Amino acid sequence: MESLTLSDVEQKYYSELFLSCDVDNTKKVASNGKVLDLFRAAQLSNEVVHQITELCGATRLGHFGRSQFYIALKLIALAQSGLPLRVESLNSVRDLPLPRFVMGKNEQEMRHAVMFADTENQGPYFPRPPGRVQAKKVSAHEMIQPCVPTVDPQPDTTSPVVSPHQSPPTSPHAWRKHKRQASGGNVDRQPSVPGVVWPHFREAQPGPVTGDGMWSAHSPPPVQESWVSFTDTPPSSTLPMHPPSAQPESTTVRTVPSAMTTNEIQRQISGYDDPWKITDEQRQYYINQFKTIQADLTGLIPGSAAKEFFTKSKLPILELSHIWELSDFDKDGALTLDEFCAAFHLVVARKNGYDLPEKLPESLMPKLIDLDDSAGVPEPAPEVGFSASPVEVTPNKSPSMPSLNQNWSELNQSNEDTAIVHPVPIRMTPSKIHMQEMELKRTGSDHTHPTSPLMAKPPELSDEAKLAATIKFPGTTVGDGYSSSDSFTSDQEPISSAVNRQRSHSGTSPEGLKVVAPPPPPPRPHASHSRSSSLDMNRNFAAVPAGPQQPGVVAFPPAVPPRPLPTQTSVPHGHRSVEGDGLPAHTSTSPHQMPEQPNFADFSQFQAFAVDQPADDGENASDSGQAERCAETTGTMKTAKNDVQSEERNATTVNSAKVSTPLAPPPKPVRRRLKSEDELRPDVEDLPQKSNVIATVLATQPSIPRSIGKDKKAIQASIRRNKETNTVLARLNSELQQQLKDLLEERISLEVQLEQLRPFSHL
Amino acid sequence: DNVCSGELKFHYTVHTSLDVVEEKISGVGKALADQRELYLGLLYPTEDYKVYGYVTNSKVKFVIVVDSSNTSLRDNEIRSMFRKLHNSFTDVMCNPFYNPGDPIQSKAFDSIVSTMMVQAC
């Protein structure tokens, strides 16, 4: 378009008109609604108005820039003068009277708009566009609506508007324009309005976005001048346009824009607050769209359906992908209503030329439906998404399954977790009994049924949070590691912490972990400890001048088959408890045993605590409980032993947890051996004797410092050695038994032969 | 040229490491759900760099090439890197607009990878 030269009067008049139409106060673009109103007020036929808009380039541009507006006004003047509308005549015709407009109501609006324009001039740049977007959207919505049905399905890249000069897809142009603007400096983006966008959703969805997108922010004067001088038009002229094209049909539309004026103004004001805010109308529209895909507003739209829907917007896949990343807050591959609205809003904004944000704006963030997740989960942002609606937790599981495994590796690294993860399901049963017994013993009974609370807890973040809180517990319980009561709690804690870590990635694993965690893991290591401790005890006995019985005790480990070992381990425990009851002296010495035999150390601790100043009340309770148990019959003793062993196990598990070594495999076999030990205990008749011996030996041992950290490693090493010894001895036993059977058979055969020979001798 | 040669070199390294990955995963008979098997560890070291491998449940392979001079990188760190990679990759996969097999153009994914690489240095 050639440059337009205006006389001063014309310039002044035109600028005033422009301002009046510039409801959005962009100073660059006049609102289509107002412009059209103005044109109609010029009392020209619709055809003429249409022609004018085409000539001025607004059709091409899709909006009325200042230059277009001026040209249009000039053309109106020409038309009103009866002159043919020619572009050439714009500058050639001199002394053209100013265009006349019947301004009745429009004047008031103009003044109103001017006032607003003035006040809004100071406003921030950016908020404007969204406000305008909203306003335009609504008005355009009405405007475009009539267009849609009449539009032929045209190539995707062209707007449905009948204009023949449709240019290539709006988006690329929008981008180009943006780039230009960015290079231009202060100019905020001038989104081209591809009002066409909405009509592209050919599923008869009304296009809420109009072609008017003239949301350019306030541009500095130089830019305005460039507008006037059409320097900017060439680039923008490539943008497809669209609003005037709505005119043909818009007899009804006419009223809409004017009706929308005040609304637009109001929206502009509200738009200052948040550029990305979704208005109620928009939200309602989005909700309606959501319903077309998913009737249940609380449900989810699967990713495939959302993909189809948003693909209709003709945005490039890359941008849609980015929009998805922004809007799918919980990363579940599906969209909730909030997420859908956010995505839709982003698509609309993008279509209007706004660049996509790097992060989801706060106003678009979907409401996080709090699951039972505890607030205490200090997870980073991406993981927070997992704390979203419960509905999405499940979907999370599938995509996060790999992360589950990953979490497990993390857990493995933490070491205590692996022990918890793997053995958990297996260990439950045997340890339960022990744990329950232990719990019963404890007076505190703060711990409910070990399994029930865990089982009952959903694998939610709440559990994890609790676990997380307890993560630190093992550290604090080092000194108390051997206490059974504490071990139970501490077992829960490390496990929960492990679970918590997992939780960050998935919701399923913690459940399984938690349920099983507390009871199983601890027992295992304890079991090993018990065995090793028993052997260690023997060694210790040898080292310590306990008494005449020591040698006998020492002799046990090497020559004793598997059975006696368990007996030994169980017996000393039982006896310790027994002695603990009536012999404070023993208890006083029991602490000495701690460094040598962790299990015994545990008990001695308990006993010591009970007698001395107990560091932990729980330990005292357990100690007293143990003592009480020991006071009962042998059957009870056995039970006590089991409990003690379980406690030991707990202690050892705690120790192992602290040491953070993966004990998954060892605990299992240890456990079974413990079971067998328990089973064997009743059968062993030597228990009382051995227990007496061992108890006395233990009692005489030197006190053991409470801090057993160093001992743990030694204990665990000895545990492993003992386990190996156990297996060897077990095999030896089986072999010997087999040999025994063979020998018996041979004996029988020999006897038969002898009898056969005897008759001869008789004879 | 240096950049190009560097890229080519890494491409070559990664391609050759794929053979090692295949070899490692083909021998695994038990369930692949075990996390430990996902992490393949050090595939092979050269004088310039070390190559670590990781395979997901869906047979997607991640290969990390680190400079041998970076001795401070421990195995745990590599594991955590793979874990983050896997998580980010899962998020990318969740995007319905992403076609598996396409080059990943997700900004979030790129940012996570870049952050990770910076941390490793």
Automatic annotation (TrEMBL), chain A:
Residues 640-650 have a biased composition (Basic and acidic residues). Keywords: Calcium, Coiled coil, Metal-binding, Phosphoprotein, Repeat. Residues 547-557 have a biased composition (Low complexity). Residues 10-97, 282-366 form the EH domain. The lineage of its organism: Eukaryota, Metazoa, Chordata, Craniata, Vertebrata. CDD domains: EH. PROSITE patterns: EF_HAND_1, EF_HAND_2, EH. Pfam families: EH. It comes from Sinocyclocheilus rhinocerous. It comes from the Eukaryota. Residues 155-165, 226-239, 247-256, 482-509 have a biased composition (Polar residues). The keyword Calcium applies. This is RalBP1-associated Eps domain-containing protein 1-like. The gene is reps1.
TrEMBL record, chain B:
It is found in: Cytoplasm, Perinuclear region. It holds the Pfam family Sedlin_N. One of its GO terms (biological process) is endoplasmic reticulum to Golgi vesicle-mediated transport. Its main location: cytoplasm. GO terms for cellular component: perinuclear region of cytoplasm. It comes from the Eukaryota. The keyword NAD does not apply. Keywords: ER-Golgi transport, Transport. Belongs to the TRAPP small subunits family. Sedlin subfamily. This is Trafficking protein particle complex subunit 2-like protein. The gene is trappc2l.
